[in-house]
Specification:
The protein is of the alpha+beta class. Helix content is 33%, strand content 27%.
């Protein structure tokens, strides 16, 4: 009886681990990109279950943009699903003087209000 209980416990632990692992893979992984890469577009390295690969961040990408990598997700029933990668725009820890000066002079950007559709 002791071996049966250990076997059931091991099966349950394995089932819990598998569910946790599947969730971690199926959720959208993040690919950090610089401000320059987001604005101008770039090829960046992204994590996938089968290892990192290069993807193209389109010009004008925003933080939170989700890119689908077809056939690069978790393998199920003999075929791979799609991997979703969320772009995360990362600024330098200490913005340099050139970036600060550019943003202070940038007048056309002031017309854009990202909070215009938020309820007041």
């Amino acid at each position: 009886m002791r071996w049966v209980n250990v076997g059931i416990l091991a099966w349950r632990l394995n089932a819990c681990r598998r569910k946790k692992h599947d969730w971690a893979i199926e959720r959208s992984d993040r690919a950090p990109i610089t401000l320059k890469e987001a604005v101008l577009g770039a090829r960046v390295k992204a994590p996938t279950p089968s290892g990192p690969l290069m993807l193209t961040a389109p010009k004008g990408s925003n933080a939170g943009t989700i890119l689908r990598l077809r056939g690069k997700g978790v393998a199920r029933a003999g075929r791979h699903g799609d991997e979703l990668v969320t772009l995360k725009v990362m600024l330098p820890p200490q913005p340099d003087r050139e970036l600060k000066e550019f943003l202070s002079r940038w007048t056309s950007g002031a017309a854009h209000d990202p909070r215009k559709d938020m309820p007041t």
